[in-house]
Amino acid sequence: MMVKLIEIKPKPNYRLWLKYSDGVAGEIDFSSHVGNGVFAIWNDPKRFENVRIGPSGELSWSDEVDVDSEAMYLRITKKKPEDIFPLLKKESINA
Q: Are 71 and 61 within 8 A, CB to CB?
């Protein structure tokens, strides 16, 4: 079971408040990415504020820029991928 991003609120200084379907919520600071590569579109703060939830649940600013919402969930919760994707856990193999 994977949680879904259900709400995004832009905050000052290139921060986003995110809320997920399991009740987890928190802020992520994107300021260190501003102006780098595809994130150059954020040089205009209004472009950053135009974030939306994309068709696959990603954070989306345009056809050019999106960020995986599951990765942001891991940052907020400080969990590892195998904590939320049980199939990633290694099974013991007895030889």
A: no
User: Per the structure block, which two tokens stand in for 45?
Assistant: 């703060």
Q: What is the pLDDT along the chain (95 residues), one digit of tens a residue?
A: 478 999 999 999 999 999 999 999 999 999 999 999 999 999 999 999 999 999 999 999 988 899 999 999 999 999 888 877 777 766 555 55
Which CATH code fits 5-88?
A: 3.30.2020.10
Please name the residue that has the structure tokens 């200084």: 13
Report yes or no: 31 and 15 within 8 Å, Cβ to Cβ: yes
Global confidence as pTM = 0.83
